[in-house]
Amino acid sequence: MQPAEWIRFIAQFAQLNRRQRQAGMALLRGNTPHDATVALLEGVAHSRLACPACHSPHLHRHGHA
Q: Burial letters for 45-64: b for 16+ Cβ neighbours within 10 Å, e otherwise?
């Protein structure tokens, strides 16, 4: 990942629930099975990166917070 991607990824930890944070920390330590890693990233990415206004998978804003 590029530095900007890591910064965005780390900033999202505040928005995750406890289970997601623990899974993310395990992922960063490298002791998580590959399938669990993919499932966690897909689950978080879909909920965080989809635009709530138009459901686009691209990160953008329509004047909403």
A: eeeeeeeeeeeeeeeeeeee
Q: Which of 11-15, 25-29, 50-54 has the lowest mean pLDDT?
A: 50-54
What letter represents residue 58's amino acid? H
CB 26 within 8 A of CB 32: yes
Burial of 20 (0-12, 13-18, 19+ CB in 10 A): middle
What's the rounded Cα separation, in Å, for the pair 52 and 64? Answer: 9
pTM to 2 decimal places: 0.33
